[in-house]
Amino acid sequence: MMSPPSASSLDSVFGLVLELPARSPAPEAPARLDALFAELARASGARPAEEIQDMIWAIWTSHEDGEAEATMAEAIAALSSGALRQARPLLDRLVALHPGWAEAWNKRATLNFIERRDGDSLADIARTLELEPRHFGAVSGFGQICLRHGRLNEARAAFQIALAINPHLDDLRAMVRDLAPRNLMLH
Fold this sequence. Notes:
This protein is an all-alpha fold.
């Protein structure tokens, strides 16, 4: 069952997405992410982009509380296997116990997107981006919600912002090309 987002919630999150380049991460964001994002932004670094992305995701999914980290791993495994009913209480518990953990919000946004609960997903994406404005996954997720609801200009802008954060998202680059106004008229 799809819960469509309100136009105002889409517009509100879109406003947040547009502000991302000027925003700083929450103070509790690991400082080592700064160097990784700087390296990711360069066209070619000492390491492959995939390795840098994997390191960023590893930091995002890690937590100083070992139990929280184990719960995150369990939630990710549940999402990956399609056990959505198992993932929901795990992610609800993580955001309740660790409201400053951006990745807990992002994973719940992903679950909500899969369940087509787009209004709930938008709220979780907004919280993710308030904590970690460089979260290219959350920005991409917002773009996917926009696509699902026919908001093509917003989707294209979101994908462009995600690419500004992580220029190595080739699938998004192709989507931006497909969403260019001249390409939309050809379809």
